């Protein structure tokens, strides 16, 4: 069986008034399994390519499906990581803004929960997003995705407010 791949986008904002560090958008997965899970469970909006779709095109589509926002470049290639489930995740960053407190217009997924019961649940793929400092984003993100924050920070211009 071939390993799965996924493409995602990391939105960052450098225009934080009174702050000298960027903020980054991270997403909390919806559904009953993640309802009471917080730190270490959030993700960069991402998803698998559809048949014939490239990884970057999938990243753009998934970001829009999960957040309701269109991503606009330029884009910064942050490379890839391999998650514990063996999925290879490719991520690009882009600068933009997010209206804090807004709830994403996420697509919905339907799963059987609990497994084997025949009971089907439909819920938003993403139930909330937050713009966080790099430190807070790393605390919330899945451990395997944290290097994307570090890679982006190395590529961003250093602030002169010290």
Outline:
It contains three helices and eight strands, in the order βββαβββββαα. By secondary structure, it is α+β, with helices and mostly antiparallel strands. 29% of the residues are buried.
Q: What does this molecule look like?
A:
With 162 residues, this protein is of the alpha+beta class. 19% of the residues lie in helices and 31% in strands. The protein is built from three helices and eight strands, in the order βββαβββββαα. It has helices at 55-67, 134-140, 146-155; strands at residues 5-13, 23-29, 46-47, 75-82, 88-95, 108-112, 120-124, 126-132. Strands 1, 2, 3, 4, 5 and 8 form a six-stranded mixed β-sheet that branches. It has a two-stranded antiparallel sheet with strand order 6-7. The longest helix is centred in the middle third of the chain and has 13 residues, at 55-67. The protein is globular.
What distinguishing features does this structure have?
162 residues, alpha+beta, two-stranded antiparallel sheet, 3 helices, 19% helix
Provide the succession of SSEs: EEEHEEEEEHH
| Helical/strand content category | alpha+beta
Helix content: 10-25%
Q: Beta fraction of the residues? A: 25-35%
- Number of DSSP helical runs: 3
Oligomer: single chain
Average pLDDT for all residues: 87
Anisotropy-based shape: globular
Query: What composes the largest sheet?
Result: 6 strands, mixed
In angstroms, what is the radius of gyration?
16 Å
Poorly predicted sequence stretches spanning 5 or more consecutive residues: none
Distance separating the two termini: 52 Å
Q: Report the strand count.
A: 8
């Amino acid at each position: 069986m071939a390993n799965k791949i996924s493409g995602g986008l990391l939105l960052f904002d450098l225009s934080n008034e009174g702050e000298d560090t960027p903020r980054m958008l991270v997403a909390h997965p919806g559904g009953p399994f993640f309802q009471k899970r917080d730190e270490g469970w959030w993700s960069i909006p991402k998803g698998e390519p559809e048949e014939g779709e490239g990884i970057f095109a999938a990243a753009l589509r998934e970001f829009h499906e999960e957040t309701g926002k269109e991503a606009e470049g330029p884009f910064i290639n942050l490379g890839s990581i391999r998650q514990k489930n063996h999925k290879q995740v490719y991520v690009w960053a882009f600068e933009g803004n997010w209206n804090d407190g807004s709830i994403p217009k996420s697509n919905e997924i339907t799963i059987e929960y609990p497994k084997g019961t025949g009971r089907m649940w439909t819920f938003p793929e993403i139930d909330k997003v937050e713009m966080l400092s790099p430190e807070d984003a790393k605390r919330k993100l899945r451990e395997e995705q944290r290097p994307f924050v570090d890679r982006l920070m190395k590529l961003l211009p250093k602030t002169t407010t010290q």
